């Protein structure tokens, strides 16, 4: 586990759903790479990590994270 903030949460926007998952359940933290976060999330949700390929990991000053689809503008 990497520099986890107590009570921090990962908010996931996936296929029209929103989920909040405690970072301690994923065993990731602020120093975890995007790849590590996506792998932990895929394992937690029992899905292939490839489904998160085009998702972005946003880190917030609070220690929380958001995993969401890439925004496409234009």
Notes on the protein architecture:
By secondary structure, the chain is α+β, with helices and mostly antiparallel strands. The chain has one domain. The chain is 22% helix and 30% strand. The chain has two helices and four strands, in the order ββααββ. Strands 2-1-4-3 form a four-stranded mixed beta sheet. The longest helix has 12 residues, at 34-45. The radius of gyration is 12 Å and the shape is globular.
Task: Name some characteristics of this structure.
74 residues
Written as H for each helix and E for each strand, in order along the chain, the element string is: EEHHEE
User: What's the shape?
Assistant: globular
How many domains in all? 1
Low-pLDDT ranges: none
Q: What is the count of helical runs?
A: 2
Strand content bin: 25-35%
Short description:
The protein has 74 residues and is of the alpha+beta class. 22% of the residues lie in helices and 30% in strands.
């Amino acid at each position: 586990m990497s520099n986890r903030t107590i009570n921090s949460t990962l908010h996931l926007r996936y296929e029209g759903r929103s989920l909040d998952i405690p970072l301690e359940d994923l065993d990731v933290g602020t120093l975890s790479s995007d790849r590590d976060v996506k792998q932990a999330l895929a394992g937690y949700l029992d899905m292939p990590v490839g489904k998160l390929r085009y998702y972005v990991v946003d880190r917030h000053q609070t220690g929380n994270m958001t995993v969401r689809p890439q925004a496409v503008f234009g």
